[in-house]
Amino acid sequence: MGKGDQKTKRGKIHRGTYGKLRPRKKKSSATTADVPTKQTATKTKEADKATSDKSL
Fold first, then answer.
1. Which of 4, 40, 48, 55 has the fewest beta carbons under 10 Å from its own?
2. What is the pLDDT of residue 4?
3. Rounded to 5 degrees, what are φ and ψ at 25?
């Protein structure tokens, strides 16, 4: 039950592999994708205001 045991978490860490006891971490790219969407929405509102002001 040490570093040589392939079925334990310590053995997975030592070998550099993943499995049931040591799952891979999920990437949190979904939260970073939402942030630019909000910024572009505010930019389009500002652009619409600027366009409507120019037409007056």
1. 55
2. 85
3. -80, 140
pLDDT at 20 exceeding the cut of 80:
yes
Instruction: Give the whole-angstrom CA distance, residue 28 versus residue 30.
Output: 5
**Residues 6+ positions from 21 with CB-CB distance below 8 Å:** 7, 8, 9, 12
CA angle, 33 then 19 then 4, to 5°? 135
Which residue in the block uniquely carries the two structure tokens 């040490």? Answer: 2
Structure tokens at 20: 């049931």
Q: CA–CA separation, 24 vs 13, rounded Å?
A: 12
